[in-house]
Amino acid sequence: MSAPTAQGQARQILDMNAYRPGNGQSRPVERRLANLGAASVLFYRQPIEMVGAEGAWMIAKDGTRYLDFYNNVPSVGHSHPKVVEAVSRQIAQLNTNTRYIVSVVDDYLEALKALLPPELSNVMMTCSGSEANDLAIRVARAATGGTGIIVTETAYHGNTALVTEVSPSALKRGSLPEKVIAIPPPGAAHFGEDIAGGFRASVEAALAEFGRRGIRPAAFLADSIFSSDGILADPPGFLAPAVEAVRAAGGLFIADEVQPGFGRTGDAFWGYARHGVTPDIVTMGKPMGNGFPMAAMVARPDHLEQFCADVGYFNTFGGNPVAAAAGHAVLDVICEEGLQENARETGAHLLAGLRQVAAGDARVTDVRGAGLFIGVDLADEAGRPDPAFTVQVIDAMRAHNVLIGAAGRYGATLKVRPPLCLTREEAERFIEAFRAALAG
Amino acid sequence: MSAPTAQGQARQILDMNAYRPGNGQSRPVERRLANLGAASVLFYRQPIEMVGAEGAWMIAKDGTRYLDFYNNVPSVGHSHPKVVEAVSRQIAQLNTNTRYIVSVVDDYLEALKALLPPELSNVMMTCSGSEANDLAIRVARAATGGTGIIVTETAYHGNTALVTEVSPSALKRGSLPEKVIAIPPPGAAHFGEDIAGGFRASVEAALAEFGRRGIRPAAFLADSIFSSDGILADPPGFLAPAVEAVRAAGGLFIADEVQPGFGRTGDAFWGYARHGVTPDIVTMGKPMGNGFPMAAMVARPDHLEQFCADVGYFNTFGGNPVAAAAGHAVLDVICEEGLQENARETGAHLLAGLRQVAAGDARVTDVRGAGLFIGVDLADEAGRPDPAFTVQVIDAMRAHNVLIGAAGRYGATLKVRPPLCLTREEAERFIEAFRAALAG
């Protein structure tokens, strides 16, 4: 069980490269800060003004083209013409709520459900992954009668009041509520080589602690690629014993697919499928509409009935026909352009290239991942995670026209997460930029 | 202080006209139910399949054109060409998050802020009014150090876990948490004619009850047109003493403008402005993007800083340039087409016409409202609120090609809420349909 204040520290480190008000900033930066104030989240100490984007590239106002390895929302490629066309066509025709039947919506829901376990047959459409996870926790609590939630220690599951409680990485101060226990990520050093067994042991320790607190478990909530914990993908299957343990205690497994879903891991369409588990609830978001605000929670009808008996739930924008059109176009593009296969193949090429760089530089201590989601650990001369060096590399990558961010407990893991349409040439370009950034 | 179970009853009544599974439903209905399950919210016992919409009209698959008096999202008119054009243009060019500067976003935020009190200078963009209210409650708690929230007894403020707690009308069973007190709506019968004084007394009683519970107040959260409570608009100004009372006790006033905002009340751009009060926090949603999923919370920089010191908040889709383009187009259309003025004038015409109908039918016990937001109370022969009769009128209106819903504690208030582009002819048509529906 980690101390949340440690997570607060991790958060501070992750924020090291964020913009802070000061002298000498440009007018656009001052303007943004006046508009968003303390809630401003500008990236880079000298933020970038963007004017366009296409494929894997973003275009700044000064004409610079940046290779986007950071944003996993425009997953089929920025400004993809098929998604643009679908949104433009539908919004001109009909945009309403789910109080009426619109065939576009049910066509999409059926296409989406065909990709999911058949028992998860009810979909609740929302506007954001946060809303989807907020719902999932309540559905799990209503279905089990328990309240305890297990997450990993640098997890991030969204921004509502409820999901902030299960997102240790968002806490700057304070501690997790009694009903939430954060466990070490899979592969935490003290478990040695047995990642599956070690992770199961962590879940069982949390369940035992809930027992001592007199709290019944409701769910184990995990992003199966463990993005915020530093991208922990291997070995496939390690998640299964942990899921078994929570089920044996009466809890559900909620798969948060906001990060690994929609083909990103290459091996499977959903991250959980790499681990051979069937979740009780699946949530999804970010890449679902390639930037059109949409997300969903998928559950079993009997679980959903319990929740709906307590509360009348309606989401005004959730499941509108424009979102459905965007989402359907995304599924079509992933299939037609073979983006899951591309994630696997170009991802493998990228991983191999980055490992080659690592072999020649002791400061790159690990390169791991699945498909087009790769984590690269950076360390100091003594082999300790080095967030300051990571920020230096991120800045140097920017100077080489590559956008990339960091993750992990120490903020010392590069989060390599380009659009799924990435070409082999673009992967090469990234590897060269990384090599150059390391060279200073 | 109302018993939340009474609100559960109100909710059941409001649901009376909702679709329930059964025999003889069409294939599209069965399909929808298979997709959404218990979370299905289809309107009418025989739901309508829609294929298009324009202006104040929705077009069903069978070719029937319905006058839409129910949905206040497409507030400048369904499929408005200016909004369609703005979304289509921006989504083809750049759709990203607020980690980068995009001038379209700050142009919009400045246009929006120009319509708000100057001290509320920081905007947090979200995807839904629920997310905005979820944030507002947390900002108010962080800013005041208090936790108590006062709402009205049939209030609805959204669907996240936190805002469901302050939405008595969403509760089907269970009770409000200790930190939330629901007060009678303005003008509740037991206060007689002094609406302002009576409502202040209700707020003061809730503050005294918080005192007994050892809870410090954080905020009074209200929709200034009291939509869910049955549309309570008059007299303008009645809200001011209640706001004074909560401020005197150290709490904030959060104006939930999801319903009355963006010109709907005719007298002012925001609902709170009709009451001559300046809120501490303003939230907005539904009509903000005319259907593009977007919402916002606006606050004072010092209040926001308190919240941001505790939690790192980032909203992936919130404040994206496509939402900004949609929102800016909405502001432009409201201004260029004089929609606030139209809401005032066409609304007054509609109100007068409905009062004329009421004068000739004892079952129409009250007609009240502001601009294009009007409540019509329906009663039985003895003058008691009659939800069954209301459902009958709603069904009959549908037969006359008008879509309308109900609100209020008893579900016996017609919620008259057409798009702001409503013409005088369309208003006349509604009045005639209402007259015909009453005639049976």
How far apart the termini of chain A lie comes to 38 Å
Gyration radius of chain A, in Å: 21 Å
Provide the CATH top-level class of the largest domain in chain A: Alpha Beta
Helix- and strand-based class of chain A? alpha/beta
CATH topology-level name of the largest domain in chain A: Aspartate Aminotransferase, domain 2
Tally of DSSP β-strands of chain A: 15
Strands side by side in the biggest sheet of chain A: 4-10-9-8-7-5-6
Helicity level of chain A: 25-40%
InterPro entries (chains A, B): Aminotrans_3, Aminotrans_3_PPA_site, PyrdxlP-dep_Trfase, PyrdxlP-dep_Trfase_major, PyrdxlP-dep_Trfase_small
Organism (chains A, B): Tropicimonas aquimaris
Protein name (chains A, B): Aspartate aminotransferase family protein
GO molecular function (chains A, B): transaminase activity
Concise synopsis of the structure shown:
Chains A, B: This is Aspartate aminotransferase family protein. The structure is a homodimer of 440-residue chains. With 440 residues, chain A is an alpha/beta fold.
